[in-house]
């Protein structure tokens, strides 16, 4: 579905942003991830608005959960908190279309 494709795009953007932190000192990982991911996040949300508007509130929840976790983490834990919460929240909404697609037996 279009929703699943957009979730895959968000995941790919997130992984690409994470890759930008590979050679960055731990203290700078969160800032680097955030800078790289902000650009693709805006593009992904714009795509969702035009192609799958029902996905926008779900993506907002994913982004908000991750940023909230990072905001409340100690400076040295911000990167890990963001990655953990974003990954888990995205995994949960990625399963949603599959669950709703299941039809009961006749």
Question: Quick summary of this structure?
Answer:
It is built from four helices and no strands. The chain is mostly helical. The chain is globular and about 40 Å long.
Structural summary, described in words:
- The chain is mostly helical.
- It has one domain (2-99): Four Helix Bundle (Hemerythrin (Met), subunit A).
- It has four helices and no strands.
- The protein has helices spanning 2-19, 29-51, 56-71, 78-101.
- Helix 1 packs antiparallel against helix 4 and helix 2 runs parallel beside helix 4.
- It is globular and about 40 Å long.
- Belongs to the Poa p IX/Phl p VI allergen family.
- Residues 1-104 form the Pollen allergen Poa p IX/Phl p VI domain.
- InterPro entries: Poa_pIX/Phl_pVI, Pollen_allergen/Os.
- This is Phl p6 IgE binding.
């Amino acid at each position: 579905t279009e929703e699943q494709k957009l979730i895959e795009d968000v995941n790919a953007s997130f992984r690409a942003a994470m890759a930008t932190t590979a050679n960055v000192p731990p203290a700078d990982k969160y800032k680097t991830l955030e800078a790289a991911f902000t650009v693709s996040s805006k593009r992904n949300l714009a795509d969702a608005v035009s192609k799958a508007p029902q996905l926008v509130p779900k993506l907002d929840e994913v982004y908000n959960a991750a940023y909230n976790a990072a905001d409340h983490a100690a400076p040295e834990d911000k990167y890990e908190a963001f990655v953990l919460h974003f990954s888990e929240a995205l995994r949960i909404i990625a399963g949603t279309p599959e669950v709703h697609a299941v039809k009961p037996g006749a």
